[in-house]
Specification:
The complex is a heterodimer of chains A (170) and B (665). Chain A has 170 residues and is of the alpha+beta class. Helices cover 38% and strands 26% of the residues of chain A. Chain A has a 5-stranded mixed beta barrel with strand order 2-4-5-7-6. By secondary structure, chain B is α+β, with helices and mostly antiparallel strands. Chain B has 4 domains: 165 residues; 197 residues, no CATH class; 121 residues, no CATH class; 102 residues. Chain B contains 21 helices and 11 strands. In chain B, strands 3, 4, 5, 6, 7 and 8 form a 6-stranded antiparallel sheet that branches. A 4-stranded antiparallel sheet of chain B has the order 2-11-10-9. In chain B, a hairpin with a 3-residue loop joins strand 4 and strand 5. In chain B, helix 2 runs antiparallel to helix 4, helix 10 packs antiparallel against helix 20 and helix 15 packs antiparallel against helix 16. The termini of chain B are far apart. The chains are: A alpha+beta (170), B alpha+beta (665).
Chain lengths: 170, 665
């Protein structure tokens, strides 16, 4: 092989390997830093390990919001129509946090099955449903329908999916 | 019957649409005529580039003004107006609502592209005619694609006939703000400005004329686009800070990332162009950067405009817009890379440089900037990819971006300090040591002293942040001191581009100081407060004086009056609001901020609790303003460099015959 070509080949190999290693490291660190979205059903089924940071979301259950007398602590439940999960949070809730509204919480599941949230998100648009929540609700609704053979789908899951359709911004 | 029903409708929106169609036709001509002229070596056809660019811009501006007019007169027969405005909306917001959503943003985007075209036509008297014809032809092609996109998939003038709503849906309250009036146009100016640089690069590739003259033409345009991007990003950050109500100023949100990536590459491009102009090196690299920078602005447009961020599935179920932008992106990137692949091997960079030289440091700066841009790209696209593959819904946390971005910025800041004082071709460690010795000794001292003074205890991040910022400021100042030989009155006689560079680099350091201090010394508490309560945070005491109601033009608000004391001295009153906009019933938090150069006091209302109490978010943010002050310095530095007299000297008054012959060969 021509010496200059050899040199060039070495350089290219070096660049390719360097680039590969860099991308590999980036991807590895990415996989350590992602927060997976989990539906209330998945959490209720015990698919989520305790202590791992996840994002969980659903519709805030009517009448489930309980505030602390003194501070800013608040506990509420979210549902995807099939299962509900309690969430505990201390701090200021977003403007659009309301019962019946779709929200996403970032937090960890504790031993009592409660999500200790460090952040609660509800987008700044009353028409907006977080896409994860939308998917979770539809998924739960589908599962529910299959379980009931489509004959006697519970009215509650219907009303939820209806409300999503009305809320759907897209 | 029909005329009766529609008699009351004005036909003004149709004029807007007609103007847009005309702009499209002119854009097609602007593409075909000059490029064909270059091909046939026909001067007359090439000379059509300028007037066609002007005509295109004129039609686009008419179209934009018509849309603004529809907003001002509340023409709710236009769907876009009906969805994004309301008769109660104050007029300035009606005008800014033009770019409050998808369709109008696109119209603004193409209108600004038209304006850049006119700017090129006006300020390129020194450019050979064939080069100008190519540049404007390529810009015409980009324009053609995007106007077609607007007309086909996102027509802002579409009507809601036959039933015209009597009232509009209102502009998203978040966007009813001064920040939204100025932020998108500035950012778009930056995005679209990169198309000029892109066109210059592709034109130079086509003409086989990647030389110092090409770099000299490209430099002020790159800098101009970069200035707009810089200010646009800073405005976005500032707007998010005061308008979202929780005091964050950067969220690593995909939309923010979409603007930061082209900025990083444009920054690399500016520096690479300097090498190409002064030393004739890095030519193919510079061209590639120009292509990447514009491609990333197009990618940003795709990410923001296709709905792919909201949900990959929403995109998949209504793919018309996304596929169109993706096609435009593919044509732009694919086409330009193809030309690059065909032409770049013939471009030889002549000249050598040592490992220790300004070229090397600028190359390192380029690589680091690209690594940062690439990491952000990966973090932004990764969740989309995972979602697309059906592997779940994930989000990449801000911590990941910080882990990637911060070390790169630290290295970058260190290298700027050395690079700016080093010499072209080759330099000696000894000489650099003499120049920078003082800065190298003083910077760590300042870095260690700062946390001790502020909080009494050492803090690694603060030492590093303040250390590198001091290093950069001292190195820059020492450089000025040396260049003016110790006589400060000589500073104005140094070249504008040198002074601009120094100012911009100091701006980087100022931003680093701001980010370091805010990230490490901010204090934040969420508390429950009612009338008469006081809360102390750091040196400041916040007293809840009274709560009341405010009536705005299109909203009602709960407001709380706070008195703020510095220790026991009253320093002012703050009045945060919780607004409820009547049209859609949407709720908005208006934070109240007390600003000085060294700290922000930030108070925002959470939710009402029982017995008239409120959840309040109170924050003390030291050096917050420095984050944006630094960006102002950078932009001013860029402006100075842009107006350096070098770029104003006409190089050639008319195209030389040899140039044309060479170009058409």
């Amino acid at each position: 092989m021509h010496p200059q070509r050899k040199k060039r080949l070495k350089l290219i190999l070096f660049l390719v390997i360097g680039f590969g290693v860099a991308v590999g490291l980036l991807m590895y660190s990415l996989s350590q830093n992602i927060n997976l979205f989990q539906t209330p059903t998945q959490i209720a089924n015990g698919e989520v390990p305790v202590g791992r940071t996840i994002r969980a979301g659903g519709l805030v259950v009517d009448g489930s919001v309980q505030r602390d007398e003194e501070g800013l602590a608040v506990t509420f439940q979210v549902t995807d129509g099939a299962a509900t999960v309690p969430i505990h949070y201390e701090g200021i809730l977003p403007d659009l946090f309301r019962e019946g509204q779709g929200i996403v919480a970032l937090g960890k599941l504790d031993e009592h099955g409660v999500i200790q949230a460090s952040e609660v998100l509800a987008k700044h648009d009353e028409n907006y449903m977080p896409p994860e929540v939308q998917d979770a609700l539809e998924q739960a609704h589908e599962d529910g329908k299959q379980a009931m053979q489509g004959a006697s789908a519970t009215s509650s899951s219907y009303s939820i999916s209806e409300s999503i359709k009305n809320d759907g911004a897209y | 019957m029909l005329t009766e029903a529609y008699g009351a409708l004005s036909s003004i929106p149709e004029f807007g649409q007609l103007a847009l169609i005309m702009a499209f036709v002119v854009a097609v001509f602007q593409t075909v005529v000059p490029l064909w002229g270059v091909h046939r070596n026909n001067t007359l056809m090439m000379a059509y580039a300028r007037p066609l660019a002007a005509a295109q811009a004129l039609f686009l501006l008419v179209s934009l003004v018509v849309l603004a007019w529809c907003f001002v007169v509340d023409d709710f027969s236009v769907t876009y107006v009906a969805t994004n405005s309301n008769s109660a909306l104050p007029t300035p917001f009606k005008i800014s609502a033009v770019w409050g959503a998808h369709e109008g943003s696109l119209l603004l985007w193409v209108a600004l592209l038209g304006c850049w075209g006119v700017a090129v036509a006006l300020f390129s008297r020194s450019l050979p005619l064939d080069m100008l014809a190519r540049v404007l032809g390529i810009m015409g092609l980009i324009s053609t694609g995007f106007i077609l996109f607007t007309l086909e998939t996102s027509n802002p003038f579409a009507r809601t006939l036959p039933s015209v709503p009597s009232e509009g849906g209102d502009l998203n309250p978040l966007l009813q703000d001064f920040g939204l009036i100025v932020h998108p146009p500035t950012l778009y100016m930056g995005y679209v400005g990169l198309s000029v640089v892109f066109s210059f690069a592709v034109a130079a590739l086509l003409g086989g004329r990647l030389d110092a003259a090409w770099a000299r033409w490209s430099r002020p345009w790159t800098t101009a686009a970069w200035i707009f991007l810089t200010i646009g990003i800073a405005l976005g950050s500032w707007w998010a800070y005061y308008e979202l109500g929780w005091g964050g100023w950067w969220f690593w949100d995909p939309v923010e990332n979409a603007s930061l990536m082209p900025w990083l590459v444009a920054t690399a491009l500016m520096h690479s162009l300097a090498v190409t102009e002064k030393r004739g090196l890095f030519k193919s690299w510079t061209v590639l950067l120009a292509i990447i920078a514009f491609s990333l602005s197009l990618l940003g447009t795709f990410l923001v405009r296709s709905g792919v961020l909201t949900s990959v599935h929403a995109f998949a179920s209504d793919p018309e817009r996304g596929v169109f932008v993706l096609a435009l992106l593919g044509i732009c990137v694919g086409g330009s890379l193809l030309i690059y692949a065909l032409k770049a091997p013939t471009v030889a960079s002549v000249g050598r440089y040592d490992w220790l030289s300004r070229e090397s440091f600028l190359l390192m700066n380029n690589l680091l900037l690209l690594v940062a841009a690439f990491a952000i790209l990966l973090g932004t696209l990764y969740p989309l990819l995972i979602d697309f593959l059906g592997m779940g819904k994930i989000s990449v946390g801000a911590s990941w971006f910080n882990v990637m971005f911060v070390p790169v910025s630290v290295m970058l800041t260190l290298i700027i300090g050395i690079g700016a004082v080093s010499r072209w071709k080759t330099d000696q460690t000894k000489r650099l040591g003499r120049e920078l010795g003082l800065a190298a000794v003083a910077a760590p001292v300042l870095g260690i002293a700062t946390p001790l003074i502020v909080s009494g205890e050492l803090n690694g991040q603060v030492i590093l942040g303040i250390g590198i910022a001091s290093w950069l400021i001292l190195a820059s100042l020492l450089d000025v001191w040396k260049k003016c030989r110790g006589q400060l009155q000589r500073i104005p006689s140094l070249s504008l581009s040198f002074n601009g560079m120094i100012l911009a680099h100091i701006g980087v350091a100022v931003t680093v100081v701001g980010v370091t201090m805010v990230a490490n010394y901010s204090q934040e508490e969420s508390v429950r407060m009612s009338v008469g309560d006081s809360h102390t945070l750091g040196d400041y005491r916040f007293e809840f004086v009274e709560a009341g109601q405010i009536r705005g033009p299109n909203y009602h608000a709960d407001a709380i009056r706070f008195r703020v004391y510095d220790n026991d001295r009253l320093i002012g009153e703050l009045m945060p609001e919780k607004r409820r906009y009547t049209a859609r019933g949407s709720v908005m938090t208006e934070a109240a901020i007390d600003v000085t150069l060294f700290r922000d006091l930030y108070v925002s209302m959470g939710e009402p609790l029982e017995n008239g109490a409120w959840g309040m978010r109170i924050q003390v943010k030291p050096f917050m303003r420095w984050v944006w002050l630094g960006t102002i310095f950078m932009a001013l530095g860029g402006l100075m460099a842009m107006f350096d007299k070098r770029y104003r000297q006409p190089r050639r008054s008319a195209p030389s015959p040899s140039a044309i012959a060479e170009a058409t060969a």
